[in-house]
Every structure is written in C-alpha cells, then in structure tokens.
Amino acid sequence: MQVSRSAIDTAPQSSHHLTDLRFADLPLSPGLQRGIAEAGFVQCTPIQSKTLPLAIEGQDVAGQAQTGTGKTAAFLVAMYHRLEHTPALNTEDGPPAPRALILAPTRELAVQVHADAEVLGKYLPFELGLAFGGTDYDKQRDHLAAGVDILIGTPGRIIDFYKQRVFGLRGVQVLILDEADRMFDLGFIKDIRYVLRRLPEHHRRLNLLFSATLSYRVLELAYEHMNDPELVRIEPDKMTVDRVTQSIYFPANEEKFPLLLTLLRDRDPSRTMVFVNTRREAERLRDRLVHNGIKAEALSGDVPQRKRLRMLKDFQAGQLAVLIGTDVASRGLHVPGVSHVFNYDLPQDAEDYVHRIGRTARAGAAGDAISFGCEAYAISLPDIEEFIGRKIPVATFDSDALISGLPHTPSHGPRHEQRGRGPRQGSPRGRRPGNSQRSRPR
C-alpha cells in the first residue's frame, strides 16, 4: 500500500538523510510495524535514531529538530509503544481521561499530527481526538466527551474543554510538546503550565518535547515538568542550509514585484511559498499575483479555519501555485513537495531565515531558496550570513527584461510597518557595493 505524500511529511525518505538504524530492528509490536511500513518508513532519520531507542526504554527526551526531519513520526512511534506496553492509569470517578496528550502551537499543526497518527496507528486499538479553535466546537466536544485514548490539540481549546469537564487529565501517560519554542512565541506558556500542573506526576508518564531551538526558556520548561530528560540535538540549521540552493537578488523596492512575477513565470515552480514580514504585505502581494493571473493565497491568522484548511489542502494537492505567509502564520506547517521558497522580504531574525528555507528541504530533499535584498530589509543580510556561516550567492537580473505586470493600486509598503529598522543610509537600492551588473534572471 502506498501512502500519499500529504499524509506523512517525511515519506518518501531521501537516502542521504537516513541512518543505519532500521525501524524493523526496533522492539515494536507487529501492528505498529505494519503501520510504519505502510507509511513508507524503512530507515530512521537522525532525530528518530537518536530519540526512539531512548523513548522506547522509557527515557524522557528534549529534542532539537526542525519540521521535516522526522520528529513527528519519532514521537508518535514512541507514544504508541508506551501505550501498548503500559496499563492504563486508574482515574477513579470523573469524566473520561485520554492516555496521551499532544500539545501543538497551531490548529494546522494539530490537524497534521492527527493525520500522521492515523496512518502510523492504523492497526492499533486507540481512538484519536482533536481539540482546536476556529471551527467544529460542538462536534469536537461530543467526540471527546465520549472518550478518546489520544488527545491532540492547541492549549486554548484543550483548557476550554477541560474546564467544562468534557475530559480529565489525570490519566495521561504520555505528554508530547511539539514546536515548544513556537508556543512560547505565540504566548501560550501560561496555558501550557496550566495543563501540565493538572497531569499525573512527571515520573508517572513519558514526556517528549521537540523544538526547533532548545533555548533557555524551553529547557527550563523541560526540567521543571519532565523527568530528567535526555537532550538530543541534530544540528538542524547546518543540515537545512547544506541541502538548499540559495541565491539573493538586490532589487529596488519598485522592482520587487516585477522580479517575483518574472521568476515565477520563468521557473514555473509547482508549489511555491513566498515569505513576507507583515500580514498587510501578504494580503497586498496575494492581490497583485491574482490580478496577474497567478493562483495565490495569503496565510494569515484572521483567515477562517475552514478556509485555512482548504487552502493548505489545495496547496498540497498542487491546485494552488503560491502560498504567501509570515513567519508566525507559517511556522510549524508540514508542507511536502515545496519546490521553491521566496524571501520576498528578508526576515529580521536570522534564525527565521533557516526555518523559511527549510520549507523546501523536507526529509533530506534538495530545495531552491531565492531571497530579495530590497531597500527595506537588506540590512538583515549580514546577520543572516553570519548565522548560516556563509555568503549567499548573488544573482543578477536585467531590469528591462522584467515583466511589469498589470497596473495595481499602490499601498504603503513594508517600510512603514517595520519596528525601528530601515534601510541603511548611503546604500541606494539596498545593493551591495559593486553590484551594478545585471542580467536575465536565472
């Protein structure tokens, strides 16, 4: 049986991204092994090979790994193994309690983890439940009230249902925190602590935490609510940078959109993600691309949940050519098969640059990342190059060969929305010194 690429973000796996450890060599049940095999997994990725043996033995793990490196499969396999080999806790009277709890920062990530769990646990007797905001309130509530073994959701909706006594939390035997750093960024830390304090004692459960960065605040959370976790780092930044073909253009602000339009039409990318720094710019860019005949959508926090899910489904199916988003809206999404990433605006945080270009380097695959060093954001380039430890190759273009596109209504650009950061004085058009030569975009 073949599983679609949208079901598990790490299938099929790229051979140079794998280790010698095979899933078949792990002490897993026949049902779990069958689900793993049908998902297309044979050899473990680095994060899987380092964390699975520990978690299978009952060791708590705090792992640093980016999306697309196989961490979702790692914590799901460990979770299923634990549930299969540990009797359920006695929760006495009260509402039904899940045996496993997975907290995710966004509703999209919760839905994707749920889809992955369905694939890997297809032959196991565990009921899955979802809890996230924006839609299906009564449907979710009724399902969870009937009792589930594994609860996946965002902190706010989980707390809402818990306070209504839809379910209890004293039966949780496995706790998983996915994208912990992003939960901090989105302001969920108080909600997370509220949930964790209502679980059984940390030594009575398996605790797994995964994060793109193991910052001090993430580690503080790990040591406070986990049982002496083993720290695992896989150097995700270097791995991502090495797999992606990077280039940077230096357009003037008025050349940015014509350059993007020209590159999109010349390269005909199948699935393209375009990153900007503000929601307003995402919506403005979407309107301009659609006006010029390119099917595009903007992923922002105020888009209704049903539309967001449909948008992601269309993008994964290849029916939507361009998905535009900010770092907050797009971080943590499993989007397989992305051919190109455009940094229409260079990020103001160097670490976000690596997260962005990693969208097109999933599970060891190669990718193409193109950045624009415009007047407003070229100032971020030195910090980015210092962070990744290399210079980004400069690409040139012929201004006269750019597609101008259909007329549009001018709006305030991103410069008016920056927070205290603007172009350097004395550096017209944001270009590097000596970068006057231009040729056709390539």
Note the topology.
Elements: H1 30-38, H2 46-56, E1 61-64, H3 71-85, E2 100-103, H4 107-120, E3 128-131, H5 137-145, E4 150-153, H6 155-163, E5 174-177, H7 180-185, H8 189-196, E6 206-211, H9 216-225, E7 230-233, H10 236-243, E8 244-249, H11 253-267, E9 272-275, H12 279-291, E10 296-299, H13 305-316, E11 322-325, H14 327-330, E12 340-343, H15 350-357, E13 367-372, H16 381-388
Helix pairs in contact: 2-3, 3-4, 6-8, 15-16
Report on the structure:
This protein is α/β, with parallel strands linked by helices and 442 residues long. The protein contains 16 helices and 13 strands. It folds into two domains: 15-234, Rossmann fold (3-Layer(aba) Sandwich); 238-430, P-loop containing nucleotide triphosphate hydrolases (Rossmann fold). Helix 3 packs across helix 4 and helix 6 (155-163) packs across helix 8 (189-196).
What is the helix tally?
16
| Structure summary, number of beta strands | 13
CATH superfamily of the largest domain: P-loop containing nucleotide triphosphate hydrolases
**Main β-sheet: number of strands, strand sense, barrel status?**
7 strands, parallel
Q: In CATH's first tier, which class of the largest domain applies?
A: Alpha Beta
CATH architectural group of the largest domain: 3-Layer(aba) Sandwich
- Rg on CA atoms, Å: 23 Å
Order of strands, main sheet, comes to 3-4-2-5-6-1-7
Helix content: 25-40%
Distance between the termini: 40 Å
Question: Any low-confidence stretches, pLDDT <50, length ≥5?
Answer: 1-16, 410-440
